[in-house]
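Data card: per-record layout.
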Amino acid sequence: MEYKTTAIWFSPTEGTRAYARAVAAAMPGCGEEVDLTRPAVRRAEHTFTAHDLVVIGVPVYYGRVPAVPGLLDGLRGEDTPAVLLAVYGNRAIDDALLELADLAAARGFRPLAAGSFVARHTYSELVGAGRPNEADLAAAAELGRRAADKLSGPWDAPALPGSRPYRDFATAPFYPLGDERCVSCGACAGVCPTGAIDPAAPGRPTRPAVSAAWPASGPAPPAAAGWTTPAWPPPAPGWRSTSSARSARRSCFCDLSSRAGLVSVGATCGRLRAATRGRPYEWNTETRP
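The structure for this 289-residue chain is written out next.
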């Protein structure tokens, strides 16, 4: 059977996109792409058959699939094999891959393989700095090749980490805010992946964003100078934002040990080993076909 592979991602800061493309490029008939980062694309319908292959990648927010309205609602499969990717930047994937597998199965996709990968953390350039790197993308390509090899005979879905019910999803306590340099051009509203910015009043959003990935650290139009993402509501006295470079250096201890199969490498907030001080943090990348 000849397959056609489509790479699908939600990727406000482009790390997940890089992994999805690397996996898909190693699979047969790669060429199509669906960028769910854009609300208009999420609202469209994307249909796939049993002759298609899809790679579906999402970032991990609070150990879960991003709580973006309608994130996967436009996807329709017909027992379509799917490679699932969870991309995280700090602590662990928790229930994200399991939840993604459930969401995909409910829409007609059959999990073929899965992987957890590391990208630079949304709120700190020190955490996961330089990721994905060449070795990461090579591992992603290897996952794509191994997944494609499974199609030569009968295959089962991979066993995934996580538990049901999923962990509670915490609302991101951030909202975009323009200062005196904001000219209300609306460019930010056009690229906001969660639609949290009203184009009629872009400088003063009235609700917190599901993801503060833009413009905190992701790509932003030149007119976005002067935008910040303060906490919503303002943090209580005595609390320190973990998005600052100083606190990021002091809040994450990374356990580099690994177990057989697919695991995400854990990090414990509030601890720091002296050996990691001043150096970029590193995690393992692991996959399971």
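Known properties of this structure: Residues 33 and 80 are 16 Å apart (CA to CA). The mean pLDDT is 74.

See the next section for split statistics.
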